[in-house]
Amino acid sequence: MSGSTTNTGAWLRRYHPADSAPTRLVCFPHAGGSATYYFPVSRALSPAVDVVAVQYPGRQDRRTEAPVDDISKLADILAEELRPSTDRPLALFGHSLGATLAYEVALRLEAEGVEPVMLFASGRRAPSCHRDNDAVYLSDDETLLGTIKALSGTSPELLEDDELLRSLLPAIRADYKAAETYRKRPGTPLLRCPVTVLTGDVDPEVTRAEADAWEGHTSGDFTLHEYSGGHFYLNEHAPSVISRIREVLVR
């Protein structure tokens, strides 16, 4: 398969296009994250799975665009952007903010008659769970930067480039606002697709009860996998997580 990047519009990136793969996996980044976070996932799963990574505005090649600070708006846009990608079975993977966004996109796809084969929700409490003291997006720049650094999800190279990091603050702040102000709409139907939750056992952002609560959002099968580590347990357990995704999607 080709190793060149394919941009499917402004929002989607295919780093290792796998045109003959039977299943497509759409990956949604965390707050402050970008599509390239999933480059290793794409490389590892191609050509068995066609991996598509979402690129939010306000970062990397979209850094001049205004970020979107509302999950419902993002989900509306992405459900529309993904419509051409539903020509084969589709799975969704999201980490942190991305998990909530993937859930909202799954709801919209199912309302249109497209049922994902799996929703992988990583490092995020269930949509029905929120914390009233979440207001990082209202904090000053130094506090926001400190929060980002404490979660250990930002590359060391970026952390060392203070000027670049500060240039990303509007996008990071918008992402945090989207995540922290999100509330599940009353009367939201259950998902029909199965849900697999992945979580770190010492993640300060997600308790075990908040992870378990995802089961109440689907009428399909529910599975939870707990890994050692914090919010970015993914960085330590990437081979295991990728292997688990492969097992689900290539069976």
From TrEMBL:
Gene Ontology molecular functions: hydrolase activity
Record keywords: Hydrolase
Query: What domain of life does the native source organism fall in?
Result: Bacteria
Please list the coiled coil stretches: none
Q: Which Gene3D superfamilies match?
A: alpha/beta hydrolase (3.40.50.1820)
Q: Does the keyword Nucleus apply?
A: no
Q: Tell me where in this chain the Thioesterase TesA-like domain is found.
A: 26-249
Cross-referenced SUPFAM superfamilies, in alphabetical order?
alpha/beta-Hydrolases
Annotated InterPro entries: AB_hydrolase_fold, TEII, TesA-like, Thioesterase
Note the SMART domains from the entry.
PKS_TE
Record keywords: Hydrolase included? yes
The record's comment on protein family reads: Belongs to the thioesterase family.
Q: What is this protein called?
A: Alpha/beta fold hydrolase
